[in-house]
Amino acid sequence: MRRPLLLLSLLPLLAGCEWVANPMKYTREDVPRFKAHAAHPEPTPRPTELKVMTWNVKYGACRIDFWFDFWGDRVQMTPTEVDDCLTRVAALIREYDPDLLMLEEIEVDSRRSAYVDQVRYLLENTNLRYGAYMSTWDARYVPSEGVGRMDLGNAILSRYPIPRAERIRQKDRTDQDPLTETFYLKRGIGRVEVDVGEGRTLAAYVVHTEAYDQDGTKQQHIQQIHDVVRAETLPWVLGGDLNELPPVCDERAAPGTPDSCEGKLKLSGFLDERASSIGTDFEQPPYTPSVMKQYYDDFEPSIPLSRYGVGEENQRRYFTHSTLGPDVVNEQGVPGDWNRTLDYLFVRKGETWTATGVLQRPGDMGIQSDPLRLSDHAPVVGTWRLP
User: Could you tell me if 29 and 166 are in contact, meaning their C-beta atoms sit under 8 angstroms apart?
Assistant: First the structure.
């Protein structure tokens, strides 16, 4: 009976002149661009390579457990909590010091993150001068669990100027009731053009696919992203959270056959899953890693499958996600740790990556920060040798 009551409570808003939740009916449109006010070091002129990072920063919450994670009950943070988390996130970014940074789950005016403009915060507190923000969830008021005002999306920050930035609409889920759909995320592909000097322009993409759909929306998102970047005419780099496992096997293959996932890739039973999520909107749908195969066939991954290897022992070094933080134990008493790969970097086939990896621990590639305490995703990094 809760939803009719919610609808009644929303009638004054629905009757107003402004939208309650932005329907985002665009197909492809320009988005705002920003420049840091703080003085930053001058970028290298005429670069031959760029350091690239993609990172889902969990809306500046670090390891605060929220209600939808099923390990906590939080709905919002204090300004002090957000500032503390972003200070540490910015420190890690400065330690790696990328030229291009693709960010997922970043917020600019949300009650959940104390209305902090996180894009501006990171522009002013890293060596990245230019930025663009692509909103994917823009609502004046989200009634569920008292979430309230929400503006969440993806962003790209760059050491070099961004003369153009845009977002490309992705398909909505079809497995939700009308009220939930109204207030739900509207996924989009973020694209910027980066001017690296001497008339040379590159394209950078940031993506974050659906995670909890039961209607194949995520697979359609992955296909659309593939098709969009494959049609790109500029040199390009793609980074983001694809919410899908790498295609070291085919989940559709019968057990015992050469393509079977048996012993090659864990598909379920991850240490951060909780029994209480079963049957809810946040139950993890089955992974379908075979949908990622075209990325490895057609693009150049920062971490090739041959390096990723077979079996959990080999693959653990490249895991990028854990809902469960290191200071919490699961229902079997095991503390949280990275347990699967969902985040990726790609460039055009035949181009070159060097110095690639996943920043999981202090000491990785020279960092002092502890990524496991800064987000539920680890940064994926690499140096892209420009074609």
Answer: yes
- In angstroms, rounded to a whole number, what is the distance separating the alpha carbons of residues 299 and 294? 8
8-17, 109-118, 199-208, 366-375: segment of lowest average pLDDT:
8-17
Instruction: Please list, in sequence order, all residues whose beta carbon lies within 8 angstroms of the beta carbon of residue 381, skipping any fewer than 6 positions away.
Output: 51, 52, 53, 54, 96, 98, 302, 345, 355, 356, 357, 358, 359, 365
- CATH of residue 75's domain is 3.60.10.10
Closest CA to 212 of 105, 285, 312: 285
The residue ranking higher by pLDDT, 360 or 181, is: 360
Query: What is the domain range of residue 329?
Result: 2-385
Query: Cα–Cα distance between 115 and 190 in angstroms, integer?
Result: 22
The pLDDT, as a whole number, for residue 333 is: 96
Q: What is the 3-state secondary structure (H, E, C) of 327-363?
A: CCECCCCCECCCCECCEEEEEECCCEEEEEEECCCCC
166: DSSP letter? E
Domain count, the chain: 1
Predicted structure pTM score: 0.94
What's the whole-number mean pLDDT along residues 68-77? 89
Residue 2 has pLDDT above 60, yes or no: no
Pairwise CA distance, residues 22 & 182, whole Å: 8
